[in-house]
Amino acid sequence: MAIDAIAAKVITGVGTGTLSPVAPTGGDGGEGFGASLARLVGTVEDSHHSANAAVNGMLNGQLDVHDAMIALQRADLTLQFGVQVRNKLVNAYQEIMRMPV
Amino acid sequence: MPTSPITSDAQTMSALRRTLSLAAARQVVSSSNLANLSTPGYKAQEVDFDEALDQHVGGARLAVTNGRHLGGGSDAAGGFATRVSEEGAARRDGNTVQVDRELLNMTRSAGEFARAQTALAAKFRLVRYAINESR
Amino acid sequence: MSTLNTAVSVAASALSAERTRIEVAVSNLANAGSTRGADGKTYRRRDVVLATDTVRSFDSALGAASATGVKVAAIVEDQTAARRSFDPSHPDADSEGFVELPNINPAEEMVDMVGASRAYQANLTAINLIRDLVSRSLELGRA
Predict the structure, then answer these.
(1) Which residue has the higher pLDDT, C129 or C67?
(2) Which chains have 3 or more CB–CB distances shorter than 8 Å to chain A?
(3) Mind listing the pLDDT tens digit for each residue in C71-81?
(4) A81 vs B131: CB contact, 8 Å cut-off?
(5) Which residues from chain A sit within 8 angstroms of residue C57, using beta carbons?
(6) Which of residues 83 through 142 in chain C touch B, CB cutoff 8 A?
(7) Cβ of A28 under 8 Å from any chain C Cβ?
(8) pTM for the complete prediction?
(9) B44 touches C: beta carbon within 8 Å
(10) What CA–CA distance (Å, rounded) separates B40 from C50?
């Protein structure tokens, strides 16, 4: 899917740290929906923790403004990306549930 | 070495961020020189390029391996080492700082910073667009 | 350490120091003929001694701070002998008719003043440059 391929790799490489990459849907063969969603939430949370730390660092005068801004953007993009992936995962799950047994 | 254009997007962003850091480091060093324009015996400093190059490579690796690392250097030049500048003859009081040279350096670094910031902001917009339009 | 903010602090320290130099030069010029200073004796030329002022970062233990500001270490009185001028009609002339005048060379003071003024201007330019970069940094946070 377009989101996974393009955005995932871009976000993980922005340069202020590595996030655990979200597996492309169906690409890792075998990870359950629950596990995928949990990992997704973890990734988003990590990025927000980094962003908070960065902003605090900036306010303390320990970190440059541009570094803090980059961390904020990363967190925001990660969240947006996470929302889209979650939507797709949930849709896929619902479709499967709809299939007649 | 990944050749896919997707990964090079991430590398571009990393490179842009390092450009910002390097430009900022140059500014603080030039600023120190300018501030000490009248200080007897003060020798003009500059960012050590050879070390800066090594740190670029090392810094990227550092950022990738530790997710919590914020990337800011622990010393005031943002993690970049400095050395005494070769240029500039000493004046009678031993000072080697040249106003025009420092101002020129600052203007140049400011330009680099501005360009990198513009490019990085554009990249962020592009990625956001990619995320949202792929609904 | 916030690099750009440090750069501003450093430049600001120079504004303060150079202003002091200008003030001292002005004082010297104004008192070029003063035979009665604050202590009743001839005004002595004053000089500003500048020294580097290192800006330490939080983690100074980990690495040498590379930002160096400037500070006025001291304002000292020039110890060279006062000028003696033969002027018996001067109210402060001594028994031999000589007056002790301040050892001030107006041309030198002007040169100092112009130099300090130029340095002040350069650091002000630096502050403006950096301020622009900081506001650009903030723009990175815009959606």
Answers:
(1) C129
(2) B, C
(3) 999 999 988 88
(4) yes
(5) 62
(6) 115-116, 118-119, 122-123, 125-126, 129-130, 132-133, 136-137, 139-140, 142
(7) no
(8) 0.78
(9) no
(10) 7
Contacting residues for C66 by C-beta, under 8 A, at least 6 apart: B28, B29, B32, B45, B75, B76, B77, B80, B81, B82
In contact, A18 and B16? CB cutoff 8 Å: no
Pairwise CA distance, residues B25 & C143, whole Å: 26
- CA dist B124 and A78 (Å) reads 11
Report the C-alpha gap between B66 and A2 in whole angstroms: 28
Residue C1: per-residue pLDDT:
60
Q: Where are the domains of chain A?
A: 1-12+48-95
Q: Give B1: exposed, middle or buried? Use CB within 10 Å, 0-12, 13-18, 19+.
A: exposed
* Bridge-based pairing state of the strands C98-101 and B45-47: unpaired
Residues B81-100 have pLDDT tens digits of 888 888 888 999 999 999 99
Q: What CA–CA distance (Å, rounded) separates C72 from C47? A: 10
**pLDDT above 60 for B5:** no
Closest residue in B to A48 (Cα) is: B68
Up-side HSE of residue A2: CA atoms within 13 Å toward CB? 10
Q: Do C143 and A76 touch (CB under 8 A)?
A: yes
- As a whole number of Å, the end-to-end CA separation of chain B is 31
Q: Where do the domains of chain C lie? A: 3-139
The owner of tokens 């570094």 is A67
pLDDT of residue B124: 92
Range(s) of the domain holding residue B113? 5-133
Report CB contact under 8 Å: B78, C1: yes
ipTM: 0.84
C94's tokens: 């001594």
Kindly state whether B5 is in contact with chain A, defined as any CB-CB distance less than 8 angstroms. no
A76 contact residues in C (CB cutoff 8 A): 143
What distance in Å separates residue A77's CA from the closest CA in chain B? 6
Sequence-distant (≥ 6) Cβ neighbours of residue B92 within 8 angstroms: none
Query: CA-CA distance, C45 to C109, in Å (whole number)?
Result: 10
Can you tell me the mean pLDDT for C28-36? 88
Cα C50–chain centre separation: 7
What pLDDT sits at residue B88?
A: 80
